[in-house]
Amino acid sequence: MVLLNDLANRITLDDPEERRVLSRVSWAQYEALLADLGDSSAYRVHFLDGVLEILAPSRNHESGKTRIGDLLLIYFLETDTEYFPMGSTTLKKPEKKAGGEPDESYCIGTDKEFPDLAIEVIVTSGSINRLELYRRLGVREVWFWQKNRLSLYHQREENPDQFAETAGYEAIQQSEVLPDLDLELLTSCLQNPNPLAAAKAFRQGLQTQG
């Protein structure tokens, strides 16, 4: 196994999206790596049951994350929705052996320790089950942006067995955290290759709906 204290030096950004996965990692080693990488780290680090995954995001990854965040900011402003952005804040529950850093995350309505919504941009598949990770972290809703499509999942604490294959989350067609958000409008604007045109079209669409 690669020694964690050497890991930061051995990962490079030469690959468009580089991923490292280590097994049999202790929680103390995970915490030590986070401290070594620091708050300004360009990496996303996830931990679940002793498996550590480190991602060096590609430009496409970061572009997708930023564009989703930009459009959601427009939505919050246009609809006067109370929101508290948490970005890629490191979320940790040592008692659950879970820690992660979403691409974007938000508390809606009131500020909380853990977000109501986590968003992941998927460019390359990883080894850690993101839904299981976010279930343990208590995130109510998770969005995945992959291949120019949004997939939404909402936690069903009252009936987890029914959705065991998706870690207690149900695939949904409409957000329950942001029930008034037009996902077709959001998706079509995210698919627009011009970020400025997409933002203008999204704002205009929201104003038309209002």
From TrEMBL:
The keyword NADP does not apply. Signal peptide: none annotated. It comes from Leptolyngbya iicbica LK. Residues 27-183 form the Putative restriction endonuclease domain. CDD domains: DUF820-like (cd06260). This is Uma2 family endonuclease. GO terms for molecular function: endonuclease activity. InterPro entries: Nuclease_put_TT1808 (IPR012296), Restrct_endonuc-II-like (IPR011335), Uma2 (IPR008538). Keywords: Endonuclease, Hydrolase, Nuclease. The keyword Ribonucleoprotein does not apply. Pfam families: Uma2 (PF05685). It comes from the Bacteria.
